[in-house]
């Protein structure tokens, strides 16, 4: 194997390992109560998680080892680290410890199941995910923690449980490239919605609100005919 070919395999795995290291660093920072920095590390880890798959595909360097490394990194960066972050924040806003522990562990267990199920699916997967991907589930919680109305305390425990269910649900969630291929009118509606959230609540609510649309899309695609037709047109 030539050096250039070896680099093709090393580069995607380097992105995966970087995401893993950021997840571990986030956990360490949480022990020192550096919540914002830990959240930023997880967000950067999410960017690297997108990059490693894209790099592997473009470089024709997809391997079984890379697939397993990606899942292990995802469990740390998007399973364990967000679990600890949400647990600490729920305690901070006054959620009772037993409820905080139970809801946080629910998220971690659902994330582990989601990753295990993903790894058992055939390699010729369709254009959508079965259940919400764990990186997006963790980003919902992370971006929600930026929102100043985090003081809704007990409702956040409920949100953690709902997001956990969406990960293990049978609902179809479109992959990123198909989301980006959505009709222009839909993107215009999303833009108006985002601006409305910005003016009504503040900029910190916008990322959470946009991810909330994706979270709701799974049940909509599963149970409503208009959404199913939209998905069929987008996936063509």
Structure description:
This protein is mainly alpha-helical. It has a single domain (3-171), classed as Up-down Bundle (Four Helix Bundle (Hemerythrin (Met), subunit A)), CATH 1.20.120.1760. The protein has ten helices and two strands; from the N terminus they run H-H-H-H-E-H-H-E-H-H-H-H. The chain has helices at 3-31, 35-58, 64-92, 97-120, 134-146, 154-168, 176-180, 184-200, 205-223, 225-234, and strands spanning 128-130, 172-174. A two-stranded antiparallel sheet has the order 1-2. Helix 3 (64-92) runs parallel beside helix 5 and helix 4 (97-120) packs parallel to helix 6. The longest helix is centred in the N-terminal third of the chain and has 29 residues, at 3-31. The chain is globular and about 55 Å long.
List the helices and strands and how they pair.
Layout: H1 3-31, H2 35-58, H3 64-92, H4 97-120, E1 128-130, H5 134-146, H6 154-168, E2 172-174, H7 176-180, H8 184-200, H9 205-223, H10 225-234
Antiparallel strand pairs: 1-2
Helix pairs in contact: 1-2, 1-3, 2-3, 2-5, 3-4, 3-5, 4-6, 5-6, 5-9, 8-9, 9-10
Residue share in helix = over 70%
What integer is the average pLDDT? 84
Please report which band the strand proportion falls in: under 5%, 5-15%, 15-25%, 25-35%, 35-45% or over 45%.
under 5%
SSE pattern: HHHHEHHEHHHH
Tell me the radius of gyration. 18 Å
CATH topology: the name is Four Helix Bundle (Hemerythrin (Met), subunit A)
Please state the second-level CATH architecture: Up-down Bundle
For the biggest β-sheet, the strand order reads: 1-2
Structural class: mainly alpha
What's the CATH class, please? Answer: Mainly Alpha
CATH homologous superfamily label: CDP-alcohol phosphotransferase transmembrane (TM) domain
Count of the domains: 1
**Gross morphology:** globular
Total of helices: 10
């Amino acid at each position: 194997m030539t050096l250039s070919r070896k680099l093709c395999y090393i580069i995607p795995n380097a992105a995966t390992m970087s995401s893993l290291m950021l997840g571990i660093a986030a956990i360490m920072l949480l022990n020192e109560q550096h919540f914002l920095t830990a959240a930023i590390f997880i967000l950067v880890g999410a960017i690297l998680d997108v990059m490693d798959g894209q790099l592997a595909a473009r470089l024709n360097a997809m391997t079984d080892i890379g697939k397993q490394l990606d899942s292990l990194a995802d469990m740390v960066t998007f399973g364990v680290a967000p679990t600890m972050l949400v647990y600490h924040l729920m305690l901070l806003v006054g959620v009772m410890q037993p409820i905080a522990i139970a809801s946080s562990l629910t998220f971690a267990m659902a994330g582990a199941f989601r990753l295990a199920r993903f790894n058992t699916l055939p390699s010729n997967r369709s254009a959508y995910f079965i259940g919400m991907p764990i990186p997006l589930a963790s980003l919902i919680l992370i971006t929600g923690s930026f929102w100043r109305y985090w003081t809704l305390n007990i409702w956040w425990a409920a949100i953690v449980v709902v997001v956990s269910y969406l990960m293990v649900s049978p609902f179809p969630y479109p992959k990123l490239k198909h989301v980006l291929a959505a009709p222009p009118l839909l993107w215009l509606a999303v833009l108006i919605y985002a601006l409305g959230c910005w003016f009504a609540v503040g900029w910190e609510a916008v990322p959470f609100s946009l991810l909330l649309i994706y979270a709701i899309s799974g049940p909509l695609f599963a149970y409503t005919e208009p959404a199913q037709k939209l998905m069929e047109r987008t996936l063509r």
